Amino acid sequence: HAKHAGGARYCFFAPPMQEEASRKLALGSALQRAIGADEFVMHYQPKVDARSGKICGFEALIRWPQGDGAWIPPSLFIPVAEQTGRIDPIGAFAIARTAELLRQWGALGIDDVPIAVNVSALQFRHENVAAELAQAAAAAGIAPSLLEIELTESGVMNNPAQAIETLHQIHALGMTISIDDFGTGYSSLAHLKRFPIDKLKIDASFVHDIATDPCDAAIVLAIITLAHVLNLTVIAEGVETAAQMAFLIANGCDELQGNYFSPAVSNEDALGLLRRGPFSMAPPPTGTTT
Ligand code: C2E
Ligand code: MG
Ligand code: MG
Ligand code: MG
């Protein structure tokens, strides 16, 4: 459609909005081409058990390399993929590629490390996600319980009745379900308690200043308590420093994820992380501020 976008057609848009619209169109058609050319890559970030320092799973994060070593971040192209009706093939790719890596690990005797895939709100609503997940696991010949899913609050709160139904189907496959970016969307606690979910992921924005901002510290403590009262596992995202790690461990957070341990890495490097020993969970030396 980009070639029809010139002339007077957009004259009622303010210039920044017009730029925004044409950037979206350009990105949308680049996405279409990238889907056809199989340009996407999955990277994997470890989730670390707060007690043992052992890797207790990974999160699959999509990457769109640009040839020059740079890549377009998913925060930029996933929303465009959703708005331009292109999220389904991208979501299917993420699931299939992750299931394939789990198959490879299984052949190496590593069959107890689950990988979580992010499922977009649209994918969760429009598709028969449970069947898609089951099919991907079957195609790779892996136990479905090795696949986990991460969903945002908006993904489940939009239509709670339907969400409960879908979540039950996914749960019946033995898959773990996490609520991603918890605390940034709007969650009805009444619904939350009825959802068959397993895990809350504390959003990185609360974790960032946890050691210095009493408000963020209080929010994180409240989420940890809420999770445990609801019998859910709780994981902190975006852990970047030893001080954040120490605070989270001291306050009962079950799992930790973030660049302090490792960013998302390639298949080979993820395997390397698994073969290395546990991470050190030692607190920072006293007197440091990081
Ligand atoms: P998310 O699911 O909340 O993923 C966490 C994001 O935080 C990832 O960004 C990750 O690379 C980043 N991160 C991890 N540790 C740290 C840290 O210590 N500090 C900071 N500053 N950031 C950290 P990424 O990979 O850019 O992905 C952004 C978002 O894009 C994801 O947020 C998720 O919502 C979406 N996304 C990524 N891959 C997929 C996918 O395959 N399918 C769908 N539907 N969405 C995806
Ligand atoms: Mg996620
Ligand atoms: Mg998140
Ligand atoms: Mg996010």
UniProtKB/TrEMBL annotation:
Coiled coil: none annotated. Residues 24-278 form the EAL domain. It comes from the Bacteria. This is Diguanylate cyclase. It comes from Massilia eurypsychrophila.
